[in-house]
Write a structure and sequence with these properties.
With 1026 residues, this protein is of the alpha+beta class. The protein has 39 helices and 20 strands. Helix 28 crosses helix 29 and helix 32 crosses helix 34. The longest helix is centred in the middle third of the chain and has 27 residues, at 511-537. It is globular.
Length: 1026
Amino acid sequence: MIFEALFDCMDFTSWLLLGFVLLLIFDVVKNGRPPNFPPGPWAVPLVGNVFTSLDFKTMDKVAKEYGPVFSVRKGSLRMVFISGHKMVKEALVNQLDSFVDRPIVPLFHVIFKGLGIALSNGYLWKKQRKFANTHLRYFGEGQKTLEKYIEVESNFLCEAFKDEQGRPFNPHYTLTNAVSNIISSVVFGHRFEYSDPSFRQVLELDNEAVILAGALRSQLYDAFPGLMSYLPGPHQTVHANYRKIVSFLENEIEKHREEWNPDDPRDFIDVYLSEMEKKKEDPMAGFNTETLLVSTLDLIEAGTETAATTLRWALLYMLHYPEIQEKVQAEIDRVIGQSRQPTMADRPNMPYTDAVIHEVQRIGNIVPMGFPKMASKDTTLGGYFIPKGTPVATILASVLFDENEWDTPHVFNPEHFLDLEGRFVKKDAFLPFSAGKRVCLGEHLAKMELFLFFATLLQRFTFAPVPGEMPSMEGVMGFTHSPEEFRLLAVPRVDLNCKQTSQKQEEDYSDKDRHFFFFCYCLFLLTLTMGLYHFLLSFDLKGLFLFLLLFLLITDYLKNRKPSTFPPGPRALPFVGNIFNMDSKHPHIYFTKLADIYGSVFRVRLGWDTMVFVSGYKMVKEALVTQAENFVDRPYNAVADRFYSEPSGGLFLSNGEKWKTQRRFALSTLRNFGLGKNTLEQSISEEIRYLQEEIESEKGKPFSPAGLFNNAVSNIICQLVMGKRYDYTNHRFQMMLKNLSEVIWLEGSIWGELYQAFPSVMKYLPGPHNKIFTIYNSIQRFLYEEMEKHRKDLDRDNPRDYIDAFLIEMENQKESNLGFTECNLAFCALDLFLAGTETTATTMLWALIFLIKNPHVQEKVHAEIDRVIGQSRLPSMADRPNLPYTDAVIHEIQRMGNIVPLNGMRVAAKDTTLGGYFIPKGTSLMPMLTSVLFDKTEWETPDTFNPGHFLDANGKFVKKQAFLPFSAGKRVCLGEGLARMELFLFLVALLQKFSFSVPEGVELSTEGITGATRVPHPYKVCAKVR
C-alpha cells in the first residue's frame, strides 16, 4: 500500500531524480576509493576525471599536489600513476614481479586482442617474448650482420637527402622509412624503397594512429568503450588505420607462406611459421596465424616509431644548437674522417656524440607516459595499497626530467652524460626504454640505429633551418611525443668549401658569355677534326695500323679504368683481361688463390668486362643476405641472350617484377603438386623402388651409376613439371639427360667463358661453344612437344602439373608483362628441369665416391640405418631426426662435393660498398661458394671429409651457418627443399639395401671435372645386396 501510494504521487521528473540518486549511490558503492588507496583529484560521479588529459605535463602538476604515487579515475576505472626516478625504479625494478602484466586497453584491444608481444600476459607473453628475443638475435640484432644492414640503409638515406640538392624538405617519412627498413629486413627479410607507395601509406597510417591515440576523445574510448564504439571520433580512425596496416601484413605473411622453406628460414616470419608447426600441441603458447600477425605488428611498430621520432628530434635540436652540431662533426672528423662509415666500434671513442644522442633521447621524451602496466597481485607502493588488477602508469617523463637527478632538466645539455674530463657516463635516471621485465625488446637495436644513423648523417651533411622557418620545439602529444612537422636544409659537407665560390661564378656568367664560349667550343671541335683528318692522310698503311692499335689501347684503358676505391686484383692484359691466366680445368681454384693474395673482395677482368669476386663466409653472407637488395639481379648473359627469344626470361636469369612473379608462381604451384608434402615423398619412394631394381639387376657387377641417378632424380621434377616419369630404357630421354650434362659442362668450360667474354666474335667462330645452342634447341623442342600435348588435353578445372597451371595462368595474365607466355613457359620448364636434375644427381655420384673411399663411414651409416629403420620398410623424412650421423654424412658430402663451386652471377643494382670497397652500379659480382664451404675460419678440417663438422659432442646433428651449397638470400636455390628430401631418401634407401665398392685395384678420384657444376670423373661401382 505504501509503495502504491508512493508510485501514484511521483511524476516523470521525480522518477528521473530517483534514478539519478540511485546511480550516484551505486557509483559511490562500486567506485569508492579503497582504504589507503593513493590520493588524487576529486572525481566527477559516474564519469570520474575523464575530462582531465593524461598527458605528462598535466600529470606532472597532479604529482606536485598529491605526491609521487597518485590515482586518477577514468569512467569507472581507477588508475595509479607513479612519478619520479626513485618511485618508478621501485615499481619497475624492485617490485618487477608485482607490475609485470598489461591491463586491457580498449582502444588497442580491438586490434591486438591481448595477443602478440606488447599487450599479452602470462604464459603466452613469456613464450612470445622469449621466441622473439631469440630469433631477433639469430637474424642479427646486436650482431655484426645487423650493423651492416644499418650501414647499408644509412647510405640509402644519405642518397635520398643528397637528392634534395640542398633544397628545403621534410625529412619525416624518409627517416621513418629508413629506420623501418631495419626491422623489416629482420621480420620480412627485405627492405622497402622510399618510393614504395604501399609502404609509405602504411607509415602514414601508423603515424596518424599513434598521434590520435593520445587525443582526449580517444581516451574517452578507454573510459566508455561500449558507448564510444557507436559514436564517430578519432578512435574510429585509429581502428580503421590499424585494419589497413594489418591487411598489408597479411599480404606479406601470405607471400612467405607461398615461398616458405622450413629448412632455410630467411627471417622472423619464416621461423614463426616453423614454430607454429612445432607448437600445435601447445595452443596456450599462442603460436598461430593471428598471434603472428599481431607480433609482426608489434615488432614493426616498436622498431619504427620510437627510433625514427628520436632521429627527428635529433635533427631538430641540431637546427636549434648549431654549435653542438659543429662539435659533433669535429669529433666525427677526428675519429672517423670522411673515408669510411661510422661503426659501433667507434662509439667508445666518440663520447660527445654519444652524449648528444642520449640527451636527445632524454629531452625528446618519446614515450612520456610509458606503456601501461597492471598490478599482478595486491601490493604496496610508497606506503599506499594497490589492489590486484589495478592499472598502473609509470611516468617516464618524470624520470627524464627529475630535478633531483639532472642538473638542468629542462635545458638541452649533453654535459648531463659527460664527466669533467669529457668521458661518457651512464646515468641511472636515463630510462627512455623503461626498465624491468617489460623493458623494450628492441633496446639494443634502437641504440645501434640511433648511433649509426645520426653519426652518418652528421658525417655527410650540415643541417640548417630554412630561412624564416625555425621549427617549434613544443612537440605533438599522441601516444608518443613527436616533433611538429618541419623542413630543413641538408647541405653536403664536402660541398661547403666550394659552394659559395661556384654560385658566385655561375652568377658572373651572362647569357652573352655563354654564347661566346659555345662558339669557341664549336670552333675548337672543327679545328680538331680537320687536323685529325690531315694527320691520318700523312700515314702509310703500317703507320695507320699502329695509330689504330694505339687508339684501341687508349680506349681499352679509359673504358676499364676504375676508381681508386675499387677492389684490387691482378694486372690485366688489354682487350682480353685475365681470361688466359685462368685455370681452364678448375677456375674456382684460380680464383681462390687470388683471394689469398688480394683479400676477400677482389676484381678479375674477363674480356671487356671487369667482375668483382667475393670470398669467405662473412663477406659472401654480407653480399647475399645483408645487402640482398643491392645484389639480387642477374647481369647480362651472352649465352642466354642468344638462346632466349625474349628478354629476362625463365626463372634463373630473369630480373625485377617478372622474376619475383615467376618465382612466386613456381613455388606456390610446385607446392600445390606436392613439393614439401607427403605426396612428393611417396613419389620419391616409388622411384626408389625402380632405382633399386635397376641396381639389383646388375647382380654385383661393375656398372656406371651416372645414367641411373640422372634418370631417377629427373623423374621427380618431371612428375611436378610434366605430370609423368620416364622409364630408364627410354632412349630419347636418356639422350636428353646426356646432353644436359654436356651443356652444363660446356657453359662452365673455357669455351663457355670465351663466349661470355667475346660473344660478337665467338658466334662466328667454330668450336665446342656452338654445341651449347644445338643442345639447348633440342631440349627446347622436347619441352615444346610436351607443352603441345598438355594443351590438347588441358582441363582448366583440374590442372595436373606445372605446365597445366602455367597454361591456365597465361589466360588470366594476357594483358600483363610478367612473363606468362608460351615462350617463357619453355624457359621456366627448362630451368626447373636443369636445376631439379643435375645438382642432386651429381651429389649422389659424389656420395658413392666418398663412402667408398671412407668404408668406416659407410659401415657406421649402415649400422645407424639398421638400428633406426631396419630392412622391413623404406626410409621416410620422419626418420631424419633419428639418423643424425647419416644426416651429417649427407651434409658433409654436399660440402666436400662442392657441386656449384662458383655461383650464379649477380649485378650491383646501385652504387654501394662491400668490404670497404666501392662497387659501382652495374658491376657484375660473383660470390664464391667454394670459399664458404672450405672457409678455414668456419670448418675445423675444411679439406678433409669429416662428418663430425655437423655433429656436437653428444653425436647430435648441428646446423652450420657456413653450409651454403644452395647459395643464400633472395636468390637461394628454388628447389632446395626438394633437393634435401631427394638426397636423404635416395641415399638412405640405397645404403639400406646395398654396400658399395669398386673392383680390386681401382682408385676413385676426388678431383672432379669443373664446368657450370663440378662432377666426378666417370667411374663404375659394384653394389652388393645387404
